[in-house]
Design the sequence.
């Protein structure tokens, strides 16, 4: 009788293995997918940020002056006039730019999912979905590092003047 018990245990184990093997059948699905971004901020979400400053610190002027006058009468124009103009600046021109930096990524992969065959999973069953991926050869990443550029240009005393004398004596 002991032999009969061993045969039942062996048959039960074989049946269990067959059931497990039957539910372990899988369908593989493969798909090429590309993960990509361009201009992505290195330090956080969104695109890279840039701050620019172009500012003159100092004094600048543009002044004009007129002395005299030309008189226009019915019998002719007469008079004298002089005009003078001066313009210039003295100070510092500051140009600055700050960039957070950015990254461009092109990362193609082939993804494979192993799913149970249709009809092998019943409500309440536990099953596993296996996944794997393979990098495709055209993957690349370009990093544009953060930077700070500052330039300062000292403006010497820059003076321009224009003197325009004019005199008219004309009769009609």
Sequence:
């Amino acid at each position: 009788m002991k032999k009969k018990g061993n045969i039942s245990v062996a048959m039960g184990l074989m049946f269990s293995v067959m059931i497990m093997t039957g539910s372990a059948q899988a369908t593989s699905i493969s798909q090429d997918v590309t993960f990509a971004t361009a201009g992505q901020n290195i330090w956080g979400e969104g695109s890279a940020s840039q701050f620019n400053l172009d500012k003159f610190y100092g004094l600048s002027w543009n002044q004009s002056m007129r002395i005299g006058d030309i008189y226009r009468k019915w019998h002719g124009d007469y008079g004298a006039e002089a005009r003078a103009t001066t313009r210039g600046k003295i100070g510092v021109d500051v140009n600055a730019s700050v960039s957070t930096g950015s990254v461009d990524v092109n990362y193609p992969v082939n993804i494979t999912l192993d799913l149970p065959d249709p009809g092998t999973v019943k409500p309440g069953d536990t099953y596993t979905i296996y996944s794997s991926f393979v990098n495709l050869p055209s993957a690349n990443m370009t990093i544009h590092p953060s930077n700070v550029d500052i330039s300062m240009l000292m403006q010497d005393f820059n003076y321009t003047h224009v003197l325009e004398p004019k005199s008219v004596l004309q009769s009609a």
